[in-house]
Amino acid sequence: MCEHHEAHETRDAAPAVGRRAFLQLATMGGLSALLFERAAYGVPAWIQESRSVGRAKRCVVVFLNGGPSHLDTFDPKPGTTNGGPFQAIETSVSGIRISEHLPLLAKEMKDVALVRSMTSREGNHDRARYLAHTGYAPQAAVQHPTLGSILSHEIGNAELELPAFVAVGGAALDGGYFGSRHSPFVVQNATRPIDDLALAVPRDRFDRRKKLLAELDSGFERRSGAGVVEPHEAVYDRADRLLKSPLLAAFEVAKEDEKTREAYGKDAFGQGCLMARRLLEAGVTCVEVQLGGWDTHQNNFDQVQKLSGTLDRGVSQLLRELRSRGLLKDTMVLCLGEFGRTPKISTVPGAKSPGRDHWAPCFFGLFAGAGVRGGQVIGRGPAKFFCAGSIPKAVASVR
Fold this sequence. Notes:
Strand 2 and strand 3 form a beta hairpin. 35% of the residues lie in helices and 13% in strands. It has a single domain, classed as Alkaline Phosphatase, subunit A, CATH 3.40.720. The strands form three sheets. Strands 6-5-7-1-8-11-4-12 form an eight-stranded mixed sheet. A two-stranded antiparallel sheet has the order 2-3. The protein is an alpha/beta fold.
């Protein structure tokens, strides 16, 4: 192990979290113990230490589509051959250092457990994304529910007029064998009005159409059985309740004061994090907010610097507001991608600047709130890739 790596990893007393342990945490093992108040069997010790285990009522998943580079964000190795041009900065916790382009999140590390030893066997985007969300590799015979759908099924409030699971910034995986009732309500862009949340015809005409539909369904039910009709009717009833609900205002981020909106960032991701906070306050069980663009085979450093600024504003402000409003103690916040990027810096012919390729063996995850003891780093990336040496000229020029 090189001297630089030893000095950098000052808070690695806890054991590394392997793929199996992570999946226990992120799906029906450890995380379910946090959210559903079940026994903490199989939960890593860093979770069990907290007295808050089992108290979570809601969850935010910040998913970084494309596979973010851990080396250029939350596990920097400046001054090494493969470290890249970014510097590491101190955080609010002595000994934990992250990228210079995440200064706001650096101030929040006292509430964050940073896992640097996440690992997977899937190097394909779709398969790895499925594994990270469900805890299973894709299978032809079964469609597994995504994490938000599991939470909707297990602890979602069926009486709430809002969906229990909302995906902001793109479609998440669906409810799988739990059915469409637990699939996400999708908001493509938090900065734009949401489609189809207003009736296309006057209410009295809509009610007449709904009555006619019920009569048609009744006849079909007599011939085919209630099991065929009930899911269809449930979708219509839930949609009707949503359209009439005053809780729809939770989607309207424009109602927030300008200072708050600016603090999150006026881009789609920042406003998505703001929408997540509003939805959680309104009673939604799980919100997934997506930030894409991390598939940086080329132009890695410019792209990661830009994305880091977006991520930094949105997630740090979300953590601050959840804490100030008394919600962080029973809200689980997760931030991760499907895998990491290679330690080796690659050059694509014709590309403006170098990149990094897919790297399933090691990536990061951030965990905060509801049973997580913050201010610690769990695990480390493989040291053998980071021998002391100068940064290649092609990389050093990208700043």
